[in-house]
Amino acid sequence: DSMQQKRKTREEKKRRKLLRAEVPLVTIHGYKGSVLARKVNGQLDVLWLTAFQAAGFSTPDLSLPMTWTDGVQDRDDVESMHTLKAVTVVPYLYEADLYGLWLAKAKASGRPTYEFSYDWRRSNLETVTRFLLYLQWISAKHHGRKVQICAHSLGAVITMAAMNLKPELFHSVLFCGAPLRGGPGLCDNIHGGTVVGRNHNITGADVAVTFASLYQMAQDVDHGHTADPTYTGIADAQGNDLPINWYDIEDWKKYKLGIFGKEENPSPVVIEHMKNSLKEGRKLRELMKHRADIKYPPITVVASNTIPTPLCMVQNGPKSVHGWDLETSATALGDGRFTYFLLFLFYF
Fold first, then answer.
1. pLDDT tens digits, residue range 183-197?
2. Which of 63, 102, 162, 306 has the fewest CB atoms lying closer than 10 Å?
3. 108 in helix, strand or coil?
4. CA–CA dist 311, 340 (Å, integer)
């Protein structure tokens, strides 16, 4: 009868809820999303990110060595400690929540929750390897259960590549602000640097040029824009797309992008660093491509189409920095950093 059916429905819902409660949840942050620190005389010296640093009173050097050994960028003594929860300069007046609210809500759900922290300056291929090892450990800890992922920004790029390598580890995936499509990526960080709060130098161009990760966020040579196959992420002053292979250093030289915007003949160390970073980036893009032989887990994409977002960098535009205007291009709706079509999971 109807009463018996309702009872069965309630029991089934309860059973599914219990099953969901046992699935481990891992959050992987985006670019600049973890605390970076080094140990000095047994004490932690935080290099990213304190209130003093955001206010511009302190500017530690975040530069990585630009030398590589056996295909791996040399390390400094800085480590990623944990996901960056919030930065507070003046409580309730000048503060920004980053991942704190989400992580608190995830923990309050009663689910087994974890956060994967990584050094967002280093090559993303390195991070993919570390992420897979971490997920294998989490899965083993939970008796072989698959893992649910919440991935933001650069963390989504890493997750997509990892999922193609070990799809059997993944229960389901939530992508948030995921620039899977590519576009100009974060080239503007390398070319002009970024301001953090009131600090104009902590991730300035001279620092960002040392980060391998930033060279690996642009679109692949055969991944055009969904709405416009000619889209490349850079345009001339008239708005015409300019052809570019983001993973060919000769095109960086041709268009005077990044270090070439300031130096005509950068040092051999810088050149070799760029070549290595771009080579790793090309491999990453190959790893991210959809594979017909894989049965992908359920995937949800959170993508905004409400904020006017610059489409590209404009050559010799009205607000050019070293020949490229990062502000005044035509816009399309997106999340403010990436347009909607760059965020949408177009592969499936």
1. 665 778 888 888 998
2. 306
3. helix
4. 10
What is the C-alpha to C-alpha distance for residues 30 and 121, in angstroms, rounded to an integer? Answer: 11
CB 319 within 8 A of CB 326: yes
How far is 222 from 228, CA to CA, in rounded Å?
13
Residues 215 and 276: their CA atoms lie apart, in Å, by 10
Residue 148 forms beta bridges with which residues?
25, 172
pLDDT in tens, 130-157: 999 999 999 999 999 999 999 999 999 9
Q: Going by DSSP bridges, is the β-strand pair 25-28/147-152 parallel, antiparallel, or unpaired? A: parallel
Cα-flanking dihedrals φ and ψ of residue 14, to 5°? -65, -40
**b/e per residue, 88-117, with b = 16+ CB within 10 A?**
ebeeeeeeeebbeebbeebeeeeebbbbbb
**What tokens appear for 120 in the block?**
């967002």
Peptide bond into 49 cis (omega under 30): yes
How many helices (H) and strands (E) are present in the chain, helices listed first? 10, 20
**Alpha carbon distance 149, 171 (integer Å):** 8
**Helix intervals (H) in 289-335:** none
Largest CA distance in the chain: 82
Give the per-residue pLDDT at 226. Answer: 46
> Taking a C-beta distance cutoff of 8 angstroms, is the pair 285, 220 a contact?
yes
